[in-house]
Amino acid sequence: MAELTKIETKIPENLTLGGVHHVTAITSSAQKIYDFFTNILGLRLAKLTVNQDDYETYHLFFTEEDGHGADMTFFDFKDIPKGNHGVNNIERASFRVPTDASLDYWTRRFDNAHVKHGEISSKFGQKTLEFEDFDGQLYQLISDQNNSGDDSKGRSWQLSNVPQEHGITGLGPVFVKVENAENLRTILETVFGFRYAGQEDDLHLFEVANGGNGAALILQEAGEKEAYAYQGYGTIHHLALGTANPETLNYWIERIKAFRLPHSGLVDRFYFSSEYVRVAPGVLFEIATYTPGIGALDMAKSGLGAVDSYEEALITSGFWIDQTKEESGLSLSLPPHLFPGDEATKARTAASLRPLDTSDAHRDRTKDELWTVEKVLEHKAGTPAETVQ
């Protein structure tokens, strides 16, 4: 009989997961999601790159001003059908806004932009506002006014026409709906170190680290006759939890391996380093570093990065290691490890992608009129936004 690995169930305090790192979803159109996020939600495009496992698919990263808070990312897989929400699925992402009054502002903004939304309500003592995009992707805004955990690390995008006092500053709780809620509860508590923090109807709140809006997951019980989810555009691909750096990530890789959950091992995404783990059918978690990835840190050490030193790289968003903050998002970026020195392959990769124009990624929008969903849908992919009346 093979020797069993001894599992240390208690997680050292310095290795505790930090909360939600990013959420990655699937869109029907890279151009439309770019327009929706920048011109309606007021988030910046921090990086335009490709899916590192499928080079014919874009990967767009949207954040707040400094690239540390509201990382919502999208794939635009070619010819993928519309997905279905339901059982065994990551159902909804949340964005943090400063106050309850911010939700009143966003209700009016959504009305004027013709964004489908619900009414302001409360979940676990926090005011929330649910809404969806043109694909039926599900989101909510959550007020930080009564947040009990860490303050948001982000600040709203300075070039947005959303008033700074109401802008999105980070990611909030992510909703997961599964058939076997008890099994996932065990994994959250035993493997990942989450704490059970309460129940409201069919929702169960779990917190990690200092808890609060930025370090929470909400487990939703599935109804008896509810349909099973399947992935496609309008659904979430995976969610990521944060860990400090590549050294702490190694701890999590070994821990997950010891619990014998299906996992990827170390994957360097350049912008951060990662480990992927399947926690339930249809539900994929990632653990990602808050520092740039191993390849990006090596670039900084070699003096070839867009930062002045390795020490600066450690506190800079990984999006701005191969491009400066002022350059990033304006054009396609391909991490060096994908195509080392192969310019011809890079050119073919860029040519295989669908048309997309992000040339106005750093345009000052503070005095722009609000876009509507209709304008988003009318914008032809790859054409400058100024041509849309």
List the helices and strands and how they pair.
Blueprint (H helix, E strand, L loop, with lengths): L19 E7 L3 H10 L4 E8 L2 E10 L8 E4 L13 E9 L2 H14 L7 E3 L2 E7 L5 E6 L26 E2 L2 E5 L2 H11 L3 E6 L2 E5 L8 E6 L14 E8 L2 H13 L8 E2 L4 E8 L2 E7 L4 H9 L7 H5 L28 H10 L20 H6 L11
GO molecular function: dioxygenase activity; lyase activity
InterPro entries: Extradiol_RC_dioxygenase, Glyas_Bleomycin-R_OHBP_Dase, Glyas_Fos-R_dOase_dom, VOC_core
Protein name: Glyoxalase family protein
What does this structure look like?
It is a single chain. The longest helix is centred in the first third of the chain and has 14 residues, at 100-113. The chain has a domain at 17-22 and 80-269 and 276-281: Roll (2,3-Dihydroxybiphenyl 1,2-Dioxygenase, domain 1), CATH 3.10.180. A hairpin with an 8-residue loop joins strand 12 (203-207) and strand 13 (216-221). It has helices at 30-39, 100-113, 181-191, 246-258, 294-302, 310-314, 343-352, 373-378; strands at 20-26, 44-51, 54-63, 72-75, 89-97, 121-123, 126-132, 138-143, 170-171, 174-178, 195-200, 203-207, 216-221, 236-243, 267-268, 273-280, 283-289. The chain has 8 helices and 17 strands. 48% of the residues are buried. The strands form 2 sheets. Strands 5, 6, 7, 8, 9, 10, 11, 12 and 13 form a 9-stranded mixed β-sheet that branches. The N and C termini lie far apart (71 Å). It is α+β, with helices and mostly antiparallel strands. Keywords: Dioxygenase, Lyase, Oxidoreductase. Pfam families: Glyoxalase. InterPro entries: Extradiol_RC_dioxygenase, Glyas_Bleomycin-R_OHBP_Dase, Glyas_Fos-R_dOase_dom, VOC_core. This is Glyoxalase family protein.
